[in-house]
Amino acid sequence: MKVLAKRYSADQKGLTLVEILIALLISAFLLAGMIAVFLNIKQTYRVQDNLARMQESGSLALELMGRDIRMLGYWGCLKANTGDLYGDATQLILKAAYAVDPPIYSCGDTVNKSASYYVDKTSSVSYSIVNNVLRRNTNNLNNDIVEGIEAMTFLYGVDTDVNSSPNVYLPYNAVVDFEKVVSIQVQLLVSSLDDNLVFKAAAFTFNGLTKTDRRIRRVHTATYMLRNRHT
Fold first, then answer.
1. CA dihedral angle for residue 58, residue 227, residue 97, residue 119, rounded to 10 degrees
2. Are 117 and 147 in contact (CB under 8 A)?
3. pLDDT in tens, 70-90
4. Helix, strand or coil for residue 106?
5. Which pLDDT value is given to residue 209?
6. CA–CA separation, 10 vs 159, rounded Å?
7. Which of 40, 77, 87, 198 has the most CB within a 10 Å radius?
8. pLDDT under 50 in the chain at which residues?
9. Which domain holds residue 201?
10. Is residue 164 part of a domain?
11. Backbone angles phi, psi at 69, to 5 degrees
12. Three-class SS of residue 38?
C-alpha cells in the first residue's frame, strides 16, 4: 500500500481546482491594479493636454486681438475721424487702416468715412464668439480663429482729465464717450475641449455666465493701450 501511494504521488500532474481559483484571484487583482494605473495615467495625460491647449488658445486669442486693438485709429498721415471704436456685451468693433493701400488724399485731411478705403474689408474688424469659437469678422467676412473661447468681456480705460492715461476702467454700458477711451482690457473665458476632466462638477461663473460641468476653465486677461490715441 505504501509503494502504490508513493507511485501515485510521483505521477501526479496539473493543478487542483483550489489552486486554479487562487491563481485566477491573484491575476485578477494584478490586472485590476494595472488597469487602474493605466486609467490614472490616461486621465493625467488628458488633463495636462487640455491645460496646454487652453494656455495656447488663450495666448493666441489675446495676441491676435492685441494686434488689432493696438492698430485702432491708425489712418496713416490722415487725421482720424470719430467712431473708430465700439463695444457691447457681445462684440468689439475696431476701425483702422488694416493693411490697406495708402488713400489718395492729402496728409492732414480728415478720414472720409464714405471713401472706399474706410469701408474696405480690412479697415473694420470686429470680434465675437460663436459656438465657443472666437470669430474675427472683416466687413462680413467671417474667420473662426480660436476654439474653446466660451465668453469674453471688455473694460474700457477712460481718460477723464485729458492726459492720455486711463483714470478709470468701465464696462461698455458705463462708457459715455468712446472717444475718451485710451486703453482696453480684454478678459477671455477659455474652456477645455474635453469634458469629465475634474472629479466633481462645480459651478464656474464669469461675467454673469454660469457653467456647471466637469470641464476645466481659466480666465485670460490682457490690457492694451490705444497708442494712436496718445499724444
1. 80
2. no
3. 988 888 777 777 888 999 988
4. coil
5. 87
6. 100
7. 87
8. 1
9. 38-229
10. yes
11. -65, -45
12. helix
DSSP 41-80: HHHHHHHHHHHHHHHHHHHHHHHHHHHHHHHTT--TTSBP
Task: Supply 66's cell numbers.
Answer: 492685441
**Amino acid letter, residue 223:** T
What is d(CA 50, CA 38) in angstroms, rounded to the nearest whole number? 18
Task: Kindly report the backbone phi and psi dihedral angles of residue 125, in degrees, each rounded to the nearest multiple of 5, phi listed first.
Answer: -125, 135
To the question of pTM greater than 0.70 for the whole model, the response is: yes
Q: Looking at residue 133, what is its pLDDT? A: 96
Number of domains in the chain: 1
Contact yes or no for 165/132 (Cβ under 8 A) = no
Where does residue 227 fall: left (phi above 0), alpha (psi -120 to 50 degrees), or beta otherwise?
alpha
Check residue 26 and report its DSSP letter.
H
> Please, how many CA atoms are within 13 Å of residue 137, restricted to the half-sphere of its CB?
11
| Spatial separation of the C-alpha atoms in residues 185 and 173, rounded to whole Å | 15
What was the pLDDT predicted at 13?
A: 66
Q: Judge whether 94 and 71 are in contact, CB under 8 Å.
A: yes
Which pLDDT score is estimated for 11? 58
For cell 462684440, the residue is 91
Let me know if residue 2 belongs to a domain: no
- Identify whether 108 is part of a domain: yes
Tell which residue, 157, 106, 151, 158, has the closest CA to residue 132: 151
Question: What pLDDT is recorded for position 121?
Answer: 52
Question: Is 27 inside any structural domain?
Answer: no
**Helix spans in the chain (H):** 2-11, 17-71
